[in-house]
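pasting for the record
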Amino acid sequence: MINIEQADSSLKISYFNEKGEIDMLSVQIPQNEYYEWYYAKTSKHDLHFKSWNNKPVIKNNSKFLSSNRIKEFLAKQPEHVHERIYQYNMPKKFFVDIEVNNDDEWPEPSIARHEITAISFSHGQLLVVMGLNELSKSQVEEIEKSINEYLATKEYPPIEFRYIYYKTEYDMIFTFFNKWIQKMPLITGWNFVEFDWAYLVNRCKKLAIDPGVASPSKKLYGKNQLPMHRVVVDYMAIYKKWDRVVFKENNSLDYVATQATGLGKIKYNGTLADLYTTDFQKYIYYNAIDSVLVRLIDEKISTMDSMFSLAKVTKSEILNVFSPISMTENVMVTEFFKRGKVFTNERRKLTEKEEYEGAFVFEPIPDLLEWCASFDYASLYPSTMRQWNMSPESYLGKMDKKLFDDPEFVKDPNVIYSASGAMFDGKEDSVFRVILNNLYAKRREAKDAMETVELEMEELKRMKERLK
């Protein structure tokens, strides 16, 4: 699921279809669904629902649905709606990189003072570069040859290279937004959102081009002005958050690409501004390789798959998976709703700063020690939460530890007591226990499938060796 937009008495929901393209579904919101939950302050309250902490609630009319109410509304939709919006499909990915004529000055994206001189994008075996200087047919062929010779050094398949010349920056950016972006379900690059995308949007505004055309609904949202119903994401952010393959000495494209693919950025003498003036052909070659490198990184380490998998498992909008809080709230609201429990639209006001005790860290004794043991517990925190049935609604408070240690104390069989004195209701599985049990089951299924695939791959390798 890409985005949920509330407009015209309906929810417009975008998602990736089986072809990897953007599809839309409009779900009408009945008039009786326009309400928010609040704690009931009188004897009048809803008979079917209570708050997550078991207090009476009441419905108040609202013109729009909050994010939690949208989750509840979607949870009530028929299965065929869920099958469409939550289906797991890989989108067509476009890896984009821009170059800026910066006169050796850092091209600040928020100002976007300097013109964009080249835009490259890589998709599969197609590589397109748009530029402001003319290149002859032979020069374009030489660039394609250089790219494929570079890729061949690490046995990557050849690409088809195209160069498109534009007389003005306006023509180039206008065409990129109004023609090319319309074909790109997912756009990414290295440090793409904070630099490339921000620079493109702000250059559009300077040149009187509407960047909103990048969105199917013509809307941009958030501080980064991302297009609604199209995924624009930074691959460096994905790599920093989820990659477990490449050793993170630093996060530069040159380093990560070299470690993951064996290929690095193209080297040149002087500054990039000098290269633009003295050797435009190599300038385009440099720009082209940058977008190809990010594509190769994705093919090698597949870190973007983590983003899609989390969105699928938690039924979240894709970019919301960067927030663990957002994902947790999503699964909590859905599970509570199944139990007839809801979250109110009220917010608790904190009058003073609250502090929580962190984990205990043992202070080591400096010495050369023998017979040391190291214990690594698999998923210790979630396993502990499952064992003690920990969850916001199951927490019963904290008892005096002295009473807990008293041999005369009689424990309630329906209460789970922890060593810290915290008590949890044990009469039924808590929301967190149910959620974690479901996630563990899915994780086990995935691991079993992975082990099966690995065994099949080993068998195929042995068959290949026997055929030699």
